[in-house]
Design a protein that fits this description.
Blueprint (H helix, E strand, L loop, with lengths): L1 H70 L2 H21 L1 H28 L15
Helix pairs in contact: 1-2, 1-3
Length: 138
């Protein structure tokens, strides 16, 4: 009887050790997944920002040359474009909190997307009221 109990406890210890190792591995993999999602979102945002900046730069250069031609003054044309840039900078400064909150929300949604998927799959299982209850079911 003592050897059976010893064997059961040894197997239980091995099972608990295996469970702990697997749980730790799962936590690591979840962390890697979330970090990679955040890096992907930030990379996408950085690329989009760079392309937007380039597009705005060329639009403003074109506008500067166009205004220069209309006003027959290069200084006046590009001066107006400089004022437009300053207005854009002031708008960004005044909307700093809104921009920061939007970025924070995007990062948080990227971090929580895995949790939402789990909740959706858990809640999408059909409930069957006519199923028989076993002693081991919840």
């Amino acid at each position: 009887m003592g050897k059976d109990a010893e064997k059961v406890f040894r197997e239980l210890k091995d099972d608990v050790s295996t469970y702990a190792e697997l749980k730790l591995e799962l936590i690591k993999l979840n962390a890697y997944e979330r970090i990679s999602k955040v890096i992907a979102v930030l990379s996408y945002g950085l690329l989009l920002s760079a392309l937007t900046f380039t597009a705005i730069l060329f639009v403003m250069l074109t506008l500067g040359f166009l205004l220069s031609k209309w006003l027959d003054s290069t200084t006046a044309g590009f001066g107006i474009v400089a004022v437009l840039y300053l207005i854009l900078v002031v708008l960004v400064i005044f909307n700093k909190n809104r921009i920061c909150l939007k970025v924070i929300n995007i990062i948080i949604s990227a971090l929580n997307s895995n949790d939402q998927k789990k909740d959706a799959t858990t809640n999408s299982e059909p409930e069957d009221d006519n199923s028989e209850q076993t002693p081991y079911s919840d």
